[in-house]
Design goal:
mitochondrion, 7 helices, seven-stranded mixed beta sheet, membrane, alpha/beta, transmembrane, SAM-dependent_MTases_sf, about 200 residues, disordered C terminus, Rossmann fold, FAM173A/B, 2 domains
């Protein structure tokens, strides 16, 4: 009987340890896998000051909004409360599910959407307002991607780190709370192209 009990306890301990490892793997993997990708985009929650600075850059703006690397959905939810149809793209499924819960809790779930997706596999061409919480390593390539995809009326808002080549049209905040806004019509030279196509006529 003693041997039988030891075997039972041994099986229970093995099952418990195995279950714990599986649960730990399920929780940790979504946070580890992004770090193993081409560019690491860690989750760092936006501060309340950063959110206010982003909203300041969205004043007098309309249209759709996308947050690239939306984390726990703070920017998307704040924008939805200001009337934007806001979308977040995030690689970590746990953060996406939590964002959806927060949007439901705050009563803006009908104006928000969150997708589990790699930002390099998504086209942002249909958005007129783009928010980016990036890292220096990704900004040059992302700058090229957005320049190819966005229309001339789009505005890109970068948080924490600016784009390397574009000159910001507006800047606000200090330190890690600094926010840079880039109007695509200036960064791409759309105004020059439009004036060349439709020259002004004297009245």
């Amino acid at each position: 009987e003693a041997g039988s009990q030891r075997r039972v306890w041994g099986l229970m301990v093995t099952a418990g340890v195995g279950g714990t490892l599986v649960a730990l793997y399920a929780v940790v993997t979504p946070f580890v896998i992004p770090a193993l990708r081409r560019v690491c985009l860690p989750f760092v929650p936006a501060t309340s000051t950063q959110i206010q600075n982003v909203l300041k850059m969205l004043e007098n703006r309309s249209g759709s909004l996308v947050d690239i690397g939306s984390g726990d959905g703070r920017i998307v939810i704040a924008a939805a409360k200001r009337g934007f149809e806001a979308v977040g793209y995030e690689l970590n499924p746990w953060l996406v599910w939590y964002s959806r819960y927060r949007a439901w809790r705050d009563g803006v779930h009908q104006n928000t959407k969150f997708f589990i997706s790699d930002l390099w596999k998504v086209s942002f061409s249909r958005y007129t307002n783009v928010v980016v919480f990036g890292v220096p390593q990704m900004m040059p390539e992302l700058e090229k991607k957005l320049e190819e995809e966005l229309e001339c009326d789009a505005r890109i808002i970068a948080c924490r780190f600016p784009f390397p080549c574009w000159v910001p049209d507006h800047t606000t905040g200090e330190g890690i709370d600094t926010v840079w806004a880039y109007d695509m019509k200036h960064s791409r030279g759309c105004e020059t192209k439009i004036s060349e196509i439709t020259p002004e006529t004297e009245l």
